[in-house]
Specification:
Layout: H1 18-24, H2 30-38, H3 43-59, H4 63-67, H5 70-73, H6 82-95, H7 101-113, H8 123-135
Helix pairs in contact: 2-3, 3-6, 6-8, 7-8
Length: about 140
């Protein structure tokens, strides 16, 4: 069960249970994260696991272990969820998995043609930043 509170019209960011993230955001838990991303219960669980991967990457030691999850992460490349797009773009930006560049461009184009409805922030900003990092 996830304790994620999604963005709303008053708050343009997710709220996570710090205790859950502290437990998950550890390279030893990557197999658990992988399992939960393969068969998520809901969008909140996906977002919680993507956020945990971002925290692992921010710690700086497990980039290759997270990059190895690309085959699992890629199943979300076609998502319309601005929340999932934002966290995926952040992971791809940090790991620079070559196969993720095309899906990032596709997300950017998709969002330009059909902007996300009911989004409380612009995921295109993170996606564009990730693309610029790839090109840098």
């Amino acid at each position: 069960m996830s304790n994620v509170i999604l963005p709303n019209q008053y708050r343009n960011y997710c709220v996570f249970d710090k205790n859950v993230i502290d437990k998950k955001a550890n390279a030893n838990n990557i197999p658990l994260i992988k399992q939960e991303l393969e068969n998520p219960a809901n969008e909140e669980q996906v977002i919680e696991n993507l956020y945990a991967l971002n925290v692992i990457l921010d710690k700086g030691n497990d980039k290759n272990k997270v990059a190895e999850l690309y085959p699992i992460l890629s199943k979300y490349n076609d998502t319309k969820s601005p929340n999932i797009q934002t966290f995926l773009a952040g992971i791809y930006r940090k790991t620079k998995v070559p196969d993720a560049f095309g899906p990032l461009v596709k997300m950017l184009i998709q969002n330009s043609i059909n902007p996300p409805q009911n989004a409380n922030f612009d995921p295109t900003e993170e996606i564009g930043g990730a693309i610029l990092d790839y090109l840098a």
